[in-house]
Amino acid sequence: MASNQHQPTVTAFFDQATSTLSYVVADPKSKACAVIDPVLELDQASAEITTHGANRILEHLESNDLRCQYILETHVHADHLSAGYFLKQRLGAPIGIGQAIVDVQQVFADMYSESADFQRDGSQFDLLITDGQTLPLGDLSIHAVHVPGHTPACMAYRCADAVFVGDTLFMPDSGTARCDFPGGDAGALYSSIQRLLALPSESRVFVCHDYQPNDRSLAFEATVKTHKQHNIHIRDGISEAEFVSMRNARDAQLSTPQLMIPSMQVNIRAGALPVHPTSSRPVITVPINAFSGRDIIELVEKSEG
């Protein structure tokens, strides 16, 4: 870990509609930075996509004379559209994600009936990041930690005393991520979180979501020590069996995220929008009952009749 005299600066950007945190982590000496988990806004009623949050990030970079070296995704998000591709076009920085993105693409490409032209090898991303890989960031470094469980491709990114954990951990009063998406696994999540909680106790943990339970103020940072003492799902003394039982029971009661259908379709493309095969206009496909698995043959027969 870098000395206390040279730690990164971290700036958070909150998307209220999806309760999502995006971050700019910067080396204050060299002005090199990385953008983590940027968000596009989607109004479902009008199917309008906007870039207000991404523009705020661009303004921050310009006003602070920061040079973006990476756009990093902690995972393929199921609750918001990524602004990675939009920012790449303006910053020229590569988009990185965990190399297990290929497993996620296989599942969701089938679900969305993607054509043979859709590559399932992660090539939509510029960097397929592996566990333990180090990315230089000016005079600092970003270290990747594979933390599967929420999804197979989840990565945490540690930069000196700051660690960006995606959905693996929420704030201590909110617990941990769900594990019921394709490829999710509560036991794997428990093991992944133990890796994070083994970091130095004063490491700053930055979460990707804050749902502000009990109407408390927005919060997005807590130390490893605080999580070990107070995280309601996985504090010290909670066994793997207890955690898995709790997580599985809790997940069985959760509904599908509101933006999951459009989000996954865009995010497996690194934030690029799908296009209609005839008009070449941006389009979102809605695969009927893809997540519930309910039989709809009768409905199809009636519509065709």
Describe what is shown at a glance.
The protein has 305 residues and is α/β, with parallel strands linked by helices. Helix content is 26%, strand content 22%. The protein has one domain (9-304): Metallo-beta-lactamase, Chain A (4-Layer Sandwich), CATH 3.60.15.
Task: Characterise the protein shown here.
This protein is α/β, with parallel strands linked by helices and 305 residues long. The protein has one domain: Metallo-beta-lactamase, Chain A, CATH 3.60.15. Helices cover 26% and strands 22% of the residues. The strands form 3 sheets. It has a 6-stranded mixed beta sheet with strand order 1-2-3-6-8-9, covered by helices on one side. The mean pLDDT is 93.
When the domains are counted, the total is: 1
Q: Which word captures the global form?
A: globular
Helix count equals: 8
The largest sheet, given as strand count, sense and whether it forms a barrel, is: 6 strands, mixed
**Percent of sequence in beta strands:** 15-25%
Give the CATH architecture.
Answer: 4-Layer Sandwich
| Major beta sheet, strand line-up | 1-2-3-6-8-9
Write down the CATH topology. Metallo-beta-lactamase, Chain A
CATH superfamily: Ribonuclease Z/Hydroxyacylglutathione hydrolase-like
**Uncertain residue segments:** none
Radius of gyration from the CA trace?
19 Å
Average pLDDT, rounded to a whole number, is 93
Structural class by SSE content: alpha/beta
CATH class, named: Alpha Beta
How far apart are the termini? 67 Å
Helix fraction by DSSP (H/I, runs of at least 4): 25-40%
* SSE pattern: EEEEEHEEHEHEEEEEHEEHHHH
